[in-house]
């Protein structure tokens, strides 16, 4: 039996008259790296937010690590999110007054656990920042800040890591470094990763690409090459001629 880290069934999310998600069925198996792509407004962020328990769907179900989110109280959902789900954002979202080590330790503190210096050091070492523990975000480059955010997302040992355009604010070289690191974490540690991106080169780091159009899954690609992804995206974004 294949295990799914995340299972999404008949997922709908409406904002007033807008159907941001309109019946999405997806499985994110434990292990691989999936990229989610689609034109602007196709529902990518909404899918990630719903799958990560940050937003509540209008209908349908999301199961993370065997637990159905809809049935959980607000408190249990927050706990599950903290312990089993990692999230990295385009804008890093680090606390500016805390050092890298303190930012990384935060999820453990919020969970009422006393973070050990060893665990925090190890998390920073995993993302190549062993020497930066005492630096504040303003003393770090964008790529280093995203690595701190990654270490913070991974410190609890989540079942899945979600990234919403995690390299969107980085220059090309730094972006490739962060993607290489993500790929390494997937290969070496079996980290289940789901990343929204608009960049075909970034998507080519994944094992699978899921395409969304108008809140629905429009197709999939495995072993994606950047050129093939770009060609497919061009087809999706083509404005119908009069
Ligand atoms: P994408 O990430 O693919 O650009 P989004 O998931 O952000 O797409 O948005 C999908 C659709 O839902 C868009 O039409 C967007 O305008 C709408 N939408 C998203 N979030 C909200 C919100 N908080 N309030 C109203 N409409 C929203």
**Can you give the helix content as a percent range?**
25-40%
Oligomer: single chain
The geometry reads as globular
Q: What class, by secondary structure content?
A: alpha/beta
N to C succession of SSEs:
EEEHEEHEHHHEHEHEEH
Q: State the CATH architecture.
A: 3-Layer(aba) Sandwich
User: What is the CATH first-level class name?
Assistant: Alpha Beta
Radius of gyration: 18 Å
Strand content: 25-35%
Biggest sheet: strands, sense, closure? 6 strands, mixed
Number of domains: 1
**DSSP summary, beta strand count:** 10
Strand order of the largest sheet: 6-7-8-3-9-10
Instruction: List the uncertain runs.
Output: none
How large is the count of helical segments?
A: 8
CATH superfamily: P-loop containing nucleotide triphosphate hydrolases
Report a brief summary of the structure.
The protein is α/β, with parallel strands linked by helices and 242 residues long.
How would you describe the overall organization of this protein?
This protein has 242 residues and is an alpha/beta fold. It has one domain: Rossmann fold (3-Layer(aba) Sandwich), CATH 3.40.50.300. Helix content is 36%, strand content 26%. The chain has 8 helices and 10 strands. It has a 6-stranded mixed sheet with strand order 6-7-8-3-9-10, with helices on both faces. Strands 2-1-4-5 form a 4-stranded antiparallel sheet, covered by helices on one side. Helix 6 (172-189) links the parallel strand 7 (160-164) and strand 8. Helix 3 (100-110) runs parallel beside helix 5 (142-154), helix 4 (117-126) crosses helix 5 and helix 5 (142-154) packs parallel to helix 6 (172-189). The longest helix has 18 residues, at 172-189. It is globular and about 55 Å long. The mean pLDDT is 94. The site of adenosine-5'-diphosphate (ADP) has 11 residues, from strand 2 and helix 1.
């Amino acid at each position: 039996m294949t295990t799914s880290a995340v299972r999404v069934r008949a997922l709908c999310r409406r904002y007033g008259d807008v159907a941001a998600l309109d019946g999405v069925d997806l499985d994110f198996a434990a292990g691989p790296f999936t990229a989610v792509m689609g034109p602007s407004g196709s529902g990518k962020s909404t899918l990630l937010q719903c799958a990560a328990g940050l937003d509540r769907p209008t209908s349908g179900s999301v199961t993370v690590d065997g637990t159905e989110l809809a049935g959980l109280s607000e408190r249990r959902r927050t706990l599950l999110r903290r312990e089993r789900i990692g999230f990295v954002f385009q804008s890093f979202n680090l606390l500016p007054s805390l050092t890298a080590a303190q930012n990384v330790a935060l999820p453990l503190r919020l969970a009422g656990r006393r973070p050990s210096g060893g665990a925090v050091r190890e998390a920073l070492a995993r993302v190549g920042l062993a020497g930066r523990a005492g630096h504040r975000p303003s003393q770090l480059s964008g790529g280093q800040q995203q690595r701190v955010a990654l270490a913070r997302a991974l410190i609890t040992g989540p079942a899945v890591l979600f990234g919403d355009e995690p390299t969107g604010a980085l220059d090309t070289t730094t972006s490739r470094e962060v993607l290489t690191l993500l790929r390494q974490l997937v290969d070496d540690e079996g980290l289940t990763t789901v990343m929204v991106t608009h960049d075909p080169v970034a998507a080519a780091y994944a094992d699978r690409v899921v395409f969304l159009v108008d809140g629905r899954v429009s197709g999939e690609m495995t072993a994606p090459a950047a050129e093939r992804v770009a060609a497919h995206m061009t087809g999706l974004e083509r404005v119908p001629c009069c």
